[in-house]
Design a protein that fits this description.
single chain; four-stranded antiparallel beta sheet; 25% helix; 132 residues
Length: 132
């Protein structure tokens, strides 16, 4: 069950069951991208979101690609970006757990600071829950 009461801007989304996953609502002027089509630019978008959201770590696209995209657990259907006017503003990634294929690990659920609390996180969460 989803706490579907009126939520103020920035209120937490609370799931008490996976039986009723919230409908995904794309924030205004945002598009959903995943790891398909011309993927050559996507490691740079991955790097951009993580570096924008991080206060300390410096991420490099080649290392991210090696660690995540080239992993045998990587599924292009389980990687989502939200873009705002073609700029990546958030991302999430799901890996199927190796010891229990019915479980997933989410290494990232990230939104750049100037788009937080505007529905990006909720949209990404709904996308990844629908995938899982």
């Amino acid at each position: 069950m989803v706490d579907s009461g009126e939520q103020s801007q920035g209120a937490d989304l609370v799931l008490t069951s996976l039986d009723n996953i919230p409908q995904m609502q794309t924030p205004s002027l945002c598009e959903i991208w995943n790891w398909q089509g011309d993927t050559s630019v996507l490691p740079y978008k991955f790097e951009s979101v993580l570096n924008s959201a991080s206060t300390e770590a410096i991420y490099e696209h080649a290392a991210l690609k090696q660690q995540y995209v080239k992993s045998e657990r990587f599924d292009p259907e389980g990687f989502f970006f939200l873009t705002y006017r073609s700029n990546a503003i958030g991302l999430t990634l799901a890996y199927r757990c190796t010891d229990d294929p019915s479980c997933f690990e989410l290494p990232y659920l990230v939104c750049v600071p100037n788009h937080r609390n505007k529905g990006v996180e909720s949209a990404l969460l709904a996308l990844i829950l629908q995938y899982c």
